[in-house]
Amino acid sequence: MSKQSCVIEINQISKRFGKVKALDSFTLDIPKGIFGLIGPNGAGKTTLIRILVGLLQSYSGNATVLGYDTRSESVELRSEIGILHEYPTYPGSLRVKQFLELVSEFYESSQDTDRILTDVDLETASDRMISNLSAGMKQRLGIAQALIGNPKLLILDEPTSNLDVIGRWDLLQMIARIHQESDISVLISSHILSELEKVCTHVGFVNNGVMVETGSLANVLQKYSGMHLQVSAQNPSHLNVFVQDINGVISTKIVGTNLLTILFDNITENELRMKVRAIADEQNVMVYSIERLGSLEIAFREVVKR
Amino acid sequence: MTTKWKQIRTMIKLETNISYPTPVLELIVSLPFIFVSYGVLQFIIGISVPSYFVPSFLFWDKLTSTIITLGTKEYAEAIFSMCSIMLFIVPIMVTFNLARELENEITKTILSYPIKRWIYFLTKIFMIIVPIIIAINVGIGISVSVFVPFGFKIENALLMSLAFCVLIFAVAASTSLIAVFTRNLLATAVLGCGIWYGLYFLAILSDYDVVLRGVFNPALMAVSFAGEQVFGFIRDVTMTDFLLSISFSFLLGCAMLIIALIRFNRMEV
């Protein structure tokens, strides 16, 4: 990845909170697009984000965001990014539009508040007090205040953490739409992997303050979760008895009434498919489909296990 | 990037909207009236509240006779008594502004916008100190305009006003120092008020420890310089004593504010 195409460059950052090492020689280049920072709770994601926006100052190593140094040029960099913190707090005594208008004055150029409110589906709540908004509305307000200053980069820390399923889906769709329409790069941190899989172009896995794997979503899925096949068959338990004996099959698992999951190694995917089909024909078991099973969750588990 | 002045202007706007909702505004506006009524009541009835309930015609008789014969002692006492009110109001305002926002993380939200930390911090302190100073001086001004025709000297009122400004500044600085170190609403309120009330009583009870009296010295000296031995323990106060005392308090306030600012600049939010 060329340095010029990176929006964030992090070099050997270490940060301690007392005896706890939150980040340990953390190095990462984040390209343009939607980048998913994935890790369990306490992995160091929020600490990293606080460093990137200049809210934490005492750490070793260095980082640049959009070319600005996070220590010495934090005000300049904040004028070009939008931030949504995890569990954000906004002044409850203000009205939605009034708050956005005040925030817009911090920036050199800002978007029209009415347009932003329409973009995030908050136009009907523009005169409501912030304290009276629902959790979903507050997250939308969070996106709106992050977008108000025409940012080149959005940093979203666990944006879906306090939303219900529909709220999560709507918010992720909104983020994807904003990226497509405005060409704004996005850094999303989350521990809910299934969500990031839907919107991210690149991902990075963080564990115990260390970046353990990073790359494009397709490459990471290919690398770590391409070793699973899911066979949908009429009688998977009967099929399982014979599939287990194939050379290269590490383990199998029956899921539900007609699914068989196969973890394999030292055998190509095509070879395995052919052998499964042959066994099915031989044993007279109807196979509906054979698909490669790939998910961030599997990839993350594989990476963390190493 | 926005200019320094634009950041200050925006911060003041944000402050007036977030931190000064109606109840706090009412409190500030009521200060001059508290002050004036406090002073007038002391003139008329001293501290004997029951005499306030005398029939109205007697009240007016009393008012007229008091104004004709008034001195400056009661007025000075009223001003010094205001210290006790300030020692409650200033820490509480710092608590519900700076400490509350540090605790509930509104500070984190605002510092995520392009604003320098020193601008955020000093604007907040400025926006706490200035309304109170204005309110107090309006009160002093109204009182003086009433009492000057009866012999009260304007320069004495100016000294008292200056003493008050320094007192408010020093108390606000110390409470903000507590706020940035504790980052806790309750701790700031208790320590902010508690320390100064403790010193206040020490200042009154102890007439020999100048250091302990700290910021109260200017107020004490101001009332003594005004021509009366109000509490009987400061004698022969000269203008030099007053200026030295007020400078000490001012420098103490500046030092506390600088430490608080350094701490705030390095704070992890």
Tell me about this structure:
- The complex is a heterodimer of chains A (306) and B (269).
- Chain A has 306 residues and is an alpha/beta fold.
- Helix content of chain A is 36%, strand content 30%.
- In chain A, the strands form three sheets. In chain A, strands 6-7-8-3-9-10 form a six-stranded mixed β-sheet, sandwiched between helices. In chain A, strands 2-1-4-5 form a four-stranded antiparallel β-sheet.
- In chain A, helix 6 links the parallel strand 7 and strand 8.
- The longest helix of chain A has 18 residues.
- With 269 residues, chain B is mostly helical.
- In chain B, helix 7 packs parallel to helix 11.
- The chains are: A alpha/beta (306), B mainly alpha (269).
- At the A-B interface, helix 2 and helix 3 of A face helix 1 and helix 5 of B.
How many domains in all of chain A? Answer: 2
The end-to-end distance of chain A, rounded to whole angstroms, is: 25 Å
Helical segment count of chain B: 11
Mean pLDDT of chain B: 72
Binned, the helix content of chain B reads over 70%
Main sheet summary of chain A? 6 strands, mixed
Work out the strand percent of chain A.
25-35%
CATH topology-level fold name of the largest domain in chain A: Rossmann fold
Task: Record keyword descriptors for this entry.
heterodimer, A: 306 residues, alpha/beta, Rossmann fold, Alpha-Beta Plaits, 2 domains, four-stranded antiparallel beta sheet, 30% strand, elongated, B: 269 residues, mainly alpha, 11 helices, 0% strand, globular
List the helices and strands and how they pair.
The complex is a heterodimer of chains A (306) and B (269).
Chain A: E1 6-17, E2 20-31, E3 34-38, H1 45-52, E4 60-65, E5 68-69, H2 74-78, E6 81-84, H3 96-104, H4 113-119, H5 135-147, E7 153-157, H6 165-182, E8 185-190, H7 193-199, E9 202-207, E10 210-216, H8 217-225, E11 228-233, H9 236-243, E12 249-255, E13 259-264, H10 269-283, E14 287-293, H11 296-305
Parallel strand pairs in A: 3-8, 3-9, 6-7, 7-8
Antiparallel strand pairs in A: 1-2, 1-4, 4-5, 9-10, 11-13, 11-14, 12-13
Helix pairs in contact in A: 6-7, 8-11, 9-10
Chain B: H1 4-18, H2 22-45, H3 56-69, H4 73-103, H5 106-111, H6 117-147, H7 154-182, H8 185-205, H9 210-213, H10 216-225, H11 239-266
Helix pairs in contact in B: 1-6, 2-4, 2-6, 4-6, 4-7, 4-8, 4-10, 6-7, 7-8, 7-10, 7-11, 10-11
